[in-house]
Design goal:
Trehalose 6-phosphate synthase; alpha/beta; about 40% helix; Glyco_trans_20; 18 strands; alpha,alpha-trehalose-phosphate synthase (UDP-forming) activity; binds 6-O-phosphono-alpha-D-glucopyranose; Rossmann fold
Amino acid sequence: MSAAPGTVPGVSRSSTQQSSAADLLVVANRLPVDQVVEADGSTSWRPSPGGLVSALAPVMRRNQGAWIGWPGNAGEEMEPFEEDGLTLVPVALSEEEVAEFYEGFSNDTLWPLYHDLAAKPSFHREWWDSYVRVNQRFADAAAANAAEGATVWVQDYQLQLVPAMLRELRPDLRIGFYLHIPFPPAELFSQLPWRRQILEGLLGADLVGFQLSGAAQNFVRLVRQRVGHKTHRDTVYLPDGRVVRARAFPISIDTEGFEELAASEEVQARAAEIRRDLGNPRTLFLGIDRLDYTKGIHARLRAFSELIADGHLDVEDAVFVQVATPSRERVDQYRQLRDDIDQLVGRVNGDLGRIGRPAISYLHSSFPREEMAALYRAADVMVVTPFRDGMNLVAKEYVACRLDGDGALVLSEFAGAADELRQAYLVNPYDINGMKATMLEASRAQPKEVARRMRAMRKTVSEHDVSHWASTFLTSLAGDPESHTKQTHPAEES
Ligand code: G6P
């Protein structure tokens, strides 16, 4: 099925809709903008963090959709409003809900559990109660704003109960769910005291999307084991005759947007300025991450500092620029991480730096897209080494910005992006010696070899951009006519 230019397949304006009811709704924990309270008490809006927003906003704008989400601070109810071509429907969270639903269950229980226990998850029953209450609020908001027969696309681990809650309220809707982070194997997921409720929540969707096929398989296996439904390959057969499909849809970036940005004179000039300010090093290594313990920042900086200490690299001609975007700062594990990185950077620069030549240039800050594009253009070696990552859009953004076809990408094999960017210099982020060897290899590789790899990766990123991702998901959600109707499961199930 092919879509009319500029529209998303499966989404059409319904004749019966009221003016406020939308035909395509995204339900995500965050609105694409955060409300910021200034010192004088006035409020303003700024783009919210995370890859999800940059991934979905263009698709939503083209389809006059509504976006339901949290404005990013504890606060009062707010009316829906228009911003930059989107209808935004704020869902309010109280102080207690920010602590229990967002910082607690979402980011101190689910986040570490779904990322291979990169930190120890905390299980608290009151956090779970808050997760249920807040998910119900999002489901109510979606039900109230959806036109008859609308398509609702629920996003990510914060809202896994919404699909079933929404189906209960509005059986007329097509409901899709997409998980941006990894879905763990049964052995890990089964630790969760509320495992069955989460699986049943997700089964409210018609289509459950994951980054990788392994995650979809983990989900189907868990549904069979823990809920007891019949399954066959990517399909779950519910007792009431409904079917749910679980498939992989690797997310991507606004490739053209990044290419245009990288081609602009301002960005090129800024890239040159960055290199000059760093003393025109021969090799500029770059890391850009949310400050998160899954990202492997500490191990990567340690590997780099050892290369200098061992004499393989010299601060006169190599520097590591690490940007760490502040994130979830009230969660203990994140506070601890910040202290650990501060301490490591201080020690490395104290021990190995020279006047005007730090080994690591560390920026704990978030930057606009233009500055990111300039950094991508300025870097010789991009180092992306998460212990576990659903996809990692930074790796794809770097590739999109390398308009001249040069630049090396060192990439963890445990990032979802490694499935597609096979020509990156792949590393095991737990293996410090392996990372050292590969970072060195990437920095010394022949330009021809670097270009060969980058060419292949650029082809992948330009062919599979974020609109391809969104339209593939929405086509699959709208397609499969048999999945709209009740059906019996086939004789042969697994
Ligand atoms: C990841 C998650 C997103 C989240 C983003 C930023 O990319 O998959 O759902 O929005 O991190 O995290 P935050 O907690 O600030 O929303």
